[in-house]
Amino acid sequence: MFFRxxxxxxxxxxxxxxxxxxxVVAVSHPAAAAAGARMLAAGGNAVDAAAAVQFALNxxxxxxxxxxxxxxxxxxxxxxxxxxxxxxxxxxxxxxRADQFAPDGLPMPFALASTSGLAVGVPGTLRGVDTxxxxxxxxxxxxxxxPAIELAxxxxxxxxxxxxxxxxxxxxxxxxxxxxxxxxxxxxxxxEGGWLVQPDLAKTLKLIAAKGPNAFYRGPLARAIVKAxxxxxxxxxxxxRGRMTTADLARYEVAIRTPLMGRYRGWTLAxxxxxxxxxxxxxxxxxxxxxxPLGDAAQGYGFGSAKTLHAMIEAMRLAFAxxxxxxxxxxxxxxxxxxxxxxxxxxxxxxxxxxxxRMDTPQAGDPTPWEPAARPAPATRARAESPHTTHFAVxxxxxxxxxxxxxxxxxxxxxxxxxxxxxxLNNELTDFNFAPTADAAAGNPGANDVAPGKRPRSxxxxxxxxxxxxxxxxxxxxxxxxxxNSVLNVTLNLVDHGMTLQQAIxxxxxxxxxxxxxVSCEGGQAFMQPGFGLAAQEALRRLGxxxxxxxxxxxxxxxxxxxxxxxxxxxxxxxDGAADRRREGTVVRLRR
Length: 592
Ligand code: GLY
Hints:
Layout: H1 2-10, H2 14-19, E1 21-27, H3 30-41, H4 46-60, E2 70-77, E3 82-87, H5 110-113, H6 125-136, H7 141-154, E4 156-157, H8 160-167, H9 177-183, E5 195-196, H10 199-211, H11 214-217, H12 219-228, H13 246-250, E6 255-257, E7 260-264, E8 267-271, H14 278-289, H15 306-326, H16 337-341, H17 343-350, E9 390-396, E10 401-407, E11 463-467, E12 470-475, H18 482-495, H19 501-506, E13 510-511, E14 520-521, H20 534-542, E15 565-569, E16 574-578, E17 586-591
Antiparallel strand pairs: 1-9, 1-17, 2-3, 2-10, 3-6, 4-5, 7-8, 8-11, 9-10, 11-12, 12-15, 13-14, 15-16
Helix pairs in contact: 3-4, 3-7, 4-6, 4-7, 7-10, 14-15, 14-17, 14-18, 15-20
Bound molecules: glycine.
């Protein structure tokens, strides 16, 4: 009752909020946003709220994130001014091998490998949230699980996005009986407006609330996870069975990382270092673009102009060529972070961008001369990635900020639900190279080849923008490799195009995720303003860019990412948030 009354109080104008902010939660689902707001209302901080949001997402966005997956939680600590990252990325089991997805030299079909236990990485989300709570939270784990337990036990209304993900799942929710029983009861896919109750998941979350995370990483639940991931698609036989053991689960540890820092036109960015490629690739792209006056309409640039979009496309292609070769888990093999962002390297790469046409497919560059230990240049390689995952952001009344992206990899992960426990297992190991690429003679480091204990390369990029040492914006996105470009688009909108946070999120996005790749661009939704005009699209076609459809047609009709964000005004102490209508984005604003 108190909570409902409290939430009613939260629907206030931002001018009132600026007077006495009590925190803001921005999430892709209203029930998960309410879970975070409940923590803040009870006196919890941003980390407590983030924990509650994450567990609630397991219930209301089970297709995208949960305790069967992993993620990156970036935390700004107002008291010390430090920014830290809890890396709970899934890890390859000890028995993983570089050629496991290509045992006969040929990569397995993605659809089969990604729905077999072989793709399941050792899950990290629960250990990550628990670690963050113990180090920086104020509430016990059980308190942060309470909203999710209620949601799972009582049920919630299926929204359009969940219903669409069930309807368009390529059969993934029908492959395993436990998954089908939850999302296709009686063989009928749950539809929008239906009611979803998840008693097994409620029981599991209660168990964790009572016994702590070791109830997941050891004992009967750990054994059930191991057994579940031994399932393989029949076409793959033994080769498709998962290799995770109870020892892998028992030894899972998170990493606490410092963010990758970068500069762009006077702003400071804190973003995600390896094992994600997200931060490095985005910062490199920004560096490649800095010589172009993207915001200056008088020079023919400005939002949505052909000149701006062409520069963005070419910069993305260059940075993704580097990503394909150089970036992986640098706890396993060093990534040339210094070289990839070195001004001289970036300037040489940026000089490849010509104003009068699309460049031939660029190869990865050689950033190694700028690294402490030089390495030879390799060949490139790239692979398609999946569109799902979840991002959310929180700020509390003390000015602590969390920006957190989490995932079970593909929509519905592996599709394997742990029998009796009601949560899905990830297929994160498909983020590794499917066939080994390491080749000393060719100078390829195999940065993202599978190896025991290694983390697969991610694209997730929780990010904060700082001015004068203070956080002003915190954001991120789902969307596989497009995450990098969604975060980039929003950054350009804020910095170059002077948009408000909501405008920056609403504006249509453009993305290319491979050096040889085609352009994807958004349009067709009323809120995506200003749009990408037909004249600009025509000019891009003339420059040689593919992916925009036939001449004279509108080739921008996709949906890319889902950015949830919070903002702080260091001058006034004001706080606000902005949510993405590409999902059921919700902002809850609290006041004291
Ligand atoms: N599996 C999505 C990512 O980590 O980027």
